[in-house]
Amino acid sequence: IYSRLASYVPPSKPGTLNTRLCPAAAAFIRSLPSSSLVVDIGCGETKYEPSSGFLLGVDPCSEILEKCAHHTDKCDVALADALDLPFRDSTADAVLLVSVLHHFASPSRRKAVLNEMQRVMSTGARALIVVWGWEQPNAAFPSQDVLVPWNLHEISINGRLPKIRFHKDSTKEQRIIQNSIPIAIRSEDRTSPSVWIDWIVSKVKNTPSPSLPSAAPHFFPNKKTQSLLTGIRRWSPSLGKKLSSLITPIEEVLADEMSGDIMRDAVNEAMATIREVVFYRYYHIFRRGEIESLISSIPSLRVVSENFDNGNWNVIVEKINANRVI
Amino acid sequence: MKLLTHNFLSSRFLKNVTTGYPLKLTIEEKNVVEAEIDVNFLKNVMVKIDYAVLYEAAKSVGEDENLPSPNAIVDIDSLNEQQLKQLHRVLVCLDVVIGSLECPETGRIFPIRDGIPNLLVNEDEVS
């Protein structure tokens, strides 16, 4: 499980779909020739379907793909990893890599993403890359590698909206930055994700936070109690044990009515805990020039244009030859 | 999953796989969503797809009737309306809801559920 996390691009969880469009991506899609075949890496709910052409979206999160409107004739999706794109070489007319690259936790992995991206691009195809920028207008990040809290308590549970904890004067960006945890990725060849994930977990656990952080963003409760319990066990063995002790007598007694009540209590208890949990997402914050130097390490890619907008670097690249680069 | 998507999918990311194409398609449940035909899009996409693979995939669901023969180069401009419609239908209207994809080299099975193929693999399966 840990081994997947480093390459896992945490999605917006169901119920919190971020429908905010990235203006640069919308403009990029509009700029494409009609009938283009677009590959969207980390497509989420496929927000950037072209008006003419076809969008092939990949995302590693099944929950978000099920939400998206892939049942149109201009869009289709697949569950896949950005590092292992399931496409033939040189097929895409265009690629979207929007808010994806900054989730990969080492320079070598970020380069691998770009290499895999250029592999599926046909010669002359363009790609839009959007990443978080270091040079924020309103505040400064504590480190170039940060864990940003993804607040589960912002979801309404049982229809109740949670309290807003932040001061209303602060901007969203400032809140994000203030609540992010700096981490140090110590060596470039720290390629074993489990090692550094373990390290991050220990780091996060030692920060003075009233809530219990989790390193498992994959876990989300669903309607099936059993898989909820399995998820809890995976995420917190001690809580899992507590719940198991409630379940065992149920299996013995087989009193349906009573078991229903006990299960509901158990689920409520679990949900109460979950509400306090903060999930963290990894971000690498790109400094000025950093994305260009990463791109220039891949011979088949050339920067067409770049701009800094709302704290993001937007870079358009073009594939300049069909030779495969390893 | 549409047959257009199938035409581009490859399992070449798997360890010891060189091309991983085409993935062998098995269909258990399909759905057809009617959509407006876009001849310009068909023209562009026919340049990119492997038509023999599309034809075989369509044949496996009994949708090969009215499709142009896979033995000759397909020229969109010379197709009659029925052929264009069928081409459009198999490319973007036909949706594989439940089924599977099989790597031609390793036999690795990728399931298709709710119309979404799952090509996620364990880290030890990739090169």
UniProtKB/TrEMBL annotation, chain A:
GO biological process: tRNA methylation; tRNA wobble uridine modification
Residue stretches spanning the membrane: none
Pfam families found in the cross-reference section: Methyltransf_11
Gene3D superfamilies (alphabetical): Vaccinia Virus protein VP39 (3.40.50.150)
Alphabetized GO MF terms: S-adenosylmethionine-dependent methyltransferase activity; tRNA (5-carboxymethyluridine(34)-5-O)-methyltransferase activity; tRNA binding
Cellular component terms (Gene Ontology): cytoplasm; nucleus
Family annotation (InterPro entries): AlkB_tRNA_MeTrf/Diox, Methyltransf_11, SAM-dependent_MTases_sf
Keywords attached to this entry: Methyltransferase, Transferase
Protein name: Methyltransferase
Automatic annotation (TrEMBL), chain B:
A GO CC term attached to the entry: tRNA (m2G10) methyltransferase complex
GO terms under biological process: maturation of LSU-rRNA; maturation of SSU-rRNA; positive regulation of rRNA processing
InterPro entries: Trm112, Trm112-like
SUPFAM superfamilies the record matches: Trm112p-like
Domain of life: Eukaryota
Signal peptide annotation: none
One of the record's GO molecular function terms: protein heterodimerization activity
A Pfam family: Trm112p
PANTHER family the UniProt entry points to: MULTIFUNCTIONAL METHYLTRANSFERASE SUBUNIT TRM112-LIKE PROTEIN, UPF0315 PROTEIN-RELATED
UniProt record similarity statement: Belongs to the TRM112 family.
Protein name: Multifunctional methyltransferase subunit TRM112-like protein
Gene source species: Pristionchus pacificus (Parasitic nematode worm)
